[in-house]
Amino acid sequence: MALRTDHARTTGSRRRSRHGERRRAGGLHLGELRFTTDTRAEVIERVLQRKTGSHPVRVVTPNIFHLHLASIDPEVTHAVNSAEIVIPDGWPVSLALRIFEGDRRGRMTGSDLALDVMKAAEQAGRSVGIIGGSAASNAAAVENVRTAYPSLRLVEFSSNPFLPLVPTEESVDEFVRVVHEDPPDILLLCVGAPKSELHLDLAHDRLDCASVLCVGATVDFLAGTKARAPRIVQSVGLEWAFRLIQEPRRLGRRYLVSAVSFSRVFVAEHRRRRRMR
Q1: Which of 14, 216, 235, 255 has the most CB atoms lying inside 10 A of its own CB?
Q2: Does 267 reside within a domain?
Q3: β pairing state of 153-155 and 186-190
Q4: Domain membership flag for residue 127
Q5: What's the pLDDT tens digit per position in 4-45?
Q6: Number of domains in the chain
Q7: Sign of dihedral through CA atoms 52, 134, 75, 241?
Q8: Which pTM does this prediction carry?
Q9: Residue 11 covered by a domain
Q10: If you compute the radius of gyration of the chain from its CA atoms, what whole number of angstroms results?
Q11: What confidence tens digit (pLDDT) does each residue in 76-101 have?
């Protein structure tokens, strides 16, 4: 199996080919990424209606960190743009799509989407599994989900696979092995970007799930080990500040680099579209 042995390895020709591929694709475009036009209701419907036995529907929710990674790594670009559903997470991305593409859906965070999907899955009799977080947080998340959705068919895996930043043959095989123990209809993959997107890109055609959602820190929110920002903070676009206060050492540099990169993407997109007029 061909694997990416160097997460940062790029060449000019590969960058140009990915860029051209992205521009030719349909959907909404921002930087190197292509977003689909699904509404929240349409996402949930597609996730629930997909049947096992075929390649799973992949749901990715890019924020400005994904845009930054895509600007420097064509493998991330490919992993995100190959997903069947790509929806904006974070107010800067949703605002930019509104300005440049007239997209008025607003942001759809992975964590909120996961809750909506689990509620709908409970009603539809579909099963859900959760991978990600520490062993303790994963176990707590499963227990809290069981309490919140008592009729939900919840799959519990025997282990919580470690997925490194750079996928290896071993890590992809272990990911597939764990899921194959008892494949859920819907898998919540909560290992963060770009680990979830890269591993899913390599493994999706070997998974028996109907749908896989890459939903970042959702497992920690479900476990209660990390708190979501209050709704009023989310509504004014300051959830990032709330999370930064909680985890300044882990998120400080990421947010700074991502903000600078997003500014460049925004300016470049503005100039490109002006030239097209």
Answers
A1: 216
A2: yes
A3: unpaired
A4: yes
A5: 444 443 333 344 344 444 444 568 999 999 999 999 999 999
A6: 1
A7: positive
A8: 0.89
A9: no
A10: 18
A11: 999 999 999 999 998 999 999 999 99
